[in-house]
Amino acid sequence: MVERDIEFGTSVTFAGVSKTYGAVKALSDFNLSIQPGEFVTLLGPSGSGKTTALNVLAGFVDATKGDVLIDQNSILGLPPERRNIGMVFQNYSLFPHMNVFENVAFPLRLRKMAAAEIQKRVGESLAMVQLDDLGDRMPNQLSGGQRQRVAFARAIVFEPSVLLMDEPLGALDLKLREAMQLEIKRYHKQLGCTILFVTHDQGEALALSDRIAVMGDGQIVQIDTPDRIYDEPNSKYVADFIGTTNLLEIEHKASSTIRFSDLEIEFTLPDNHEGWGRDRTSVSLRPEKLHRETSTDNQTIIFDAMIEEYLFLGNIIQYSVRTKTGKTLLFQEHRGPSVPILARGDALKLAFSIRDARPLDGETHGSGVA
Ligand code: ADP
Ligand code: MG
Asked: Above 90 in pLDDT, residue 6?
């Protein structure tokens, strides 16, 4: 494996960036600050502005408004090749008439680097993606995973301080995708550069990122670490987009009492109940936070349910259950010797702790329904 000097990446800032195409607002007052060396993922549905954000940073698209800074300096006046940014595109965009070596050498030739230095750098980059032996191959003689690696080697060969990746694993099958996720983590560690990664796959975003920025309608709806985005979504939109969840409507009654209308249950909130203001109209409850009733305390909500259907997921079983009001909820549990599998039509009592219910505001963000 090639040892490189770790060069810490640079900071990246989008300051109030807007980009309009006629009547379409691809980005609308988009703000994002990325720390040097950080791995940030833009996660959102198709059409939410992810690619536009990368293109504005890389210099392929001009912003309509706002500024983009690297290490506190505006880069909007610089052409793409002077921004020191590497980019991996979803479709790889390899030059079909050039072999692997020449594809990777291309950015260096563009920068008029000496032949000996090109030889050395291309060799190092290909070694990093474990393709040292394939320099003479043409792109059409490579598998999808190998093409993706060539695209990656080409993006890092000039030692960029910022690396952009636009759905780089989108075309790969699941197994290869998971293997490449580990590879990307390794590259990040080894290169130390700042990475802005784009995906519409929430699992991939959760697995790779230091922070995830969830996009909707050309803006960031929430930005946080993967665990907090998962545990503490700030809106229905984010809760629904990140993983599977149950949304339960709530009504506010007098003196810190709420009513779960889908469960026909009133519940008095414990003393410490910040976050449960009257603007909260629903809660997100992850399927793994539901459990069969065991002991009860004043933090627990218990309701009757009936098994409608189940999915066998290996070590986990996912049930869909129906409440008395006819609402369908998902409930997941780990298999185990003392956990009998429930059958269709079984009636049971389910429970959850109020601490595991995440109150949400009513914002829906219309993105993705283009
Ligand atoms: P994403 O990458 O999240 O799928 P994009 O950034 O590609 O989203 O696009 C955001 C919005 O801008 C979409 O509505 C898209 O149709 C529009 N858009 C992107 N590029 C262009 C373009 N060159 N001309 C017109 N509209 C565009
Ligand atoms: Mg895109």
From this structure: no
